[in-house]
Each structure stands twice: as C-alpha cells, then as structure tokens.
Design brief:
Number of helices: 4
Number of strands: 0
Pfam families: Thia_YuaJ
CATH class: Mainly Alpha
InterPro entries: Thia_Transptr_ThiT
GO cellular component, one term: plasma membrane
Protein name: Thiamine transporter protein (Thia_YuaJ)
Largest sheet: none
Oligomer: single chain
Radius of gyration: 17 Å
Helix content: 55-70%
Keywords: Membrane, Transmembrane, Transmembrane helix
Order of helices and strands: HHHH
Structural class: mainly alpha
Distance between the termini: 45 Å
Length: about 100
C-alpha cells in the first residue's frame, strides 16, 4: 500500500514533465500542472476521503479542492511567464554562451 508521502512525491515529481516541452514553456507549465493535479486528485480521494464533508462524494471533494488550489497556481505561473522581463531572463539563461 502506498504511503501518503509517496503520492505527494509523485505529484511534485510530475512537475518534471515540463522538461519535455523545452520549446514551449507555457505548454510545459500546463503539462506539469496537470500532472501534479492528477496525482493530488488521486491521493485526495484515496487517502483524504475522511476530510470530505459528511454526505459529499470524496471524489468530487478532491476534484474541487485540488482544482481551487492548483488551478490558480497554474494561472499565476502563466501570468508570470507572460511578463516580458521574465521571458527575456529565461531566454538569456537558456543560452549556454551567456553562462
């Protein structure tokens, strides 16, 4: 049986999926966020079902809870990436001749 910490590690490890999208950082941000959401969603209804309000489906509770936490985080990451100075800094750091 999985421990709670192992699924949490998988959730944050799923952020590494973003590395497969080196040419499109926004797509990588979305893919990593969705991967993280999936693992948190699964652990939410497997391990934390007892925290759902009485009479509420634990799957629905996990979906809503994780969407309200991870969704805004994803939007914030995309907004920060859209700032021109941030994009310029990321481009400069990804150029090996600059380093």
């Amino acid at each position: 049986m999985y421990e709670k910490n192992k699924l949490t590690r998988l959730a944050f490890g799923a952020l590494g999926i973003a590395g497969f999208f080196k040419k499109s950082l926004p797509l990588g941000i979305i893919a990593g966020g969705v991967g993280r959401f999936i693992f948190h969603f699964i652990s939410g209804f497997v391990f934390f079902a007892s925290y759902a309000p009485k009479g509420m489906n634990p799957v629905y509770y996990s979906l809503v809870y994780n969407a309200t936490v991870i969704g805004p985080e994803l939007v914030i990451c995309l907004v920060v990436y859209a700032i021109p100075q941030v994009r310029k800094a990321i481009k400069a750091l990804s150029n090996p001749s600059v380093l």
